[in-house]
């Protein structure tokens, strides 16, 4: 697969959505803390790919304003582990594969990693293809660093608008093959997220349209979420 620079030049490709996330850095997968955050991001995107049936993208080397941010300094940990005859992109791809094989279940093997340049700066992306699975993607085993537990087996996330949210099994049917914003599975969960957002900003946890527009911004929500939330409001 050839490097596709349009992921970094077209707003429709790099804006954060349920199918796209972006980072200014490239995580060092030899560090447990950075590995844990990478796994949260990948599991959330993989579950969105599973739900929508479309590929998802994790972009590296792009800042909050959509401008390329050079990854040069972040490549050093991988360069230090390169064996003779192995190229840098191949080494990073290998480490990503090992990390996913160890800490994610079901198996998540359909991905592409590409390293390239945009506006003279080094950037990269991870493309995850949708995998039909009877079970949602989740953490396969605990990840600890010293006495600190960074991830617990069974934890799972999914993209919700521009953010990832942990899947709470008590509130939804987490293994449903249906799209995650269908009312049958996600009404209670969506209401809990709205309440959390409003409480976070010091506002009363109301689900009225007036409160949500003021707090979250109707335009910031994914179209399917807006349609779904409007249904919920009409019934409350």
Strand order of the largest sheet: 1-2-5-4
Based on CA atoms alone, the radius of gyration comes out at 19 Å
The largest sheet is: 4 strands, mixed
What is the top-level CATH class of the largest domain? Answer: Alpha Beta
State the distance separating the first and last CA atoms: 49 Å
Shape: globular
The CATH architecture designation of the largest domain is 2-Layer Sandwich
Unreliable stretches: 177-186, 204-221, 232-236
Q: How many discrete domains?
A: 2
Give me the count of strands.
10
What is the helix/strand order? HHEHEHHEEEEEEEEHHH
Strand content: 15-25%
Helices and strands: which structural class? alpha+beta
Overall pLDDT score: 81
Secondary structure elements and their pairing?
Elements: H1 6-9, H2 11-14, E1 20-23, H3 32-52, E2 56-60, H4 76-79, H5 88-103, E3 104-105, E4 111-118, E5 121-128, E6 138-139, E7 143-145, E8 148-151, E9 157-160, E10 163-166, H6 183-200, H7 209-215, H8 223-234
Parallel strand pairs: 1-2
Antiparallel strand pairs: 2-5, 3-6, 4-5, 7-8, 9-10
Description:
- A hairpin with a 2-residue loop joins strand 4 (111-118) and strand 5 (121-128).
- The protein has helices at residues 6-9, 11-14, 32-52, 76-79, 88-103, 183-200, 209-215, 223-234; strands spanning 20-23, 56-60, 104-105, 111-118, 121-128, 138-139, 143-145, 148-151, 157-160, 163-166.
- It has 236 residues and is of the alpha+beta class.
- It has eight helices and ten strands.
- Mean pLDDT is 81; it is low at 177-186, 204-221 and 232-236.
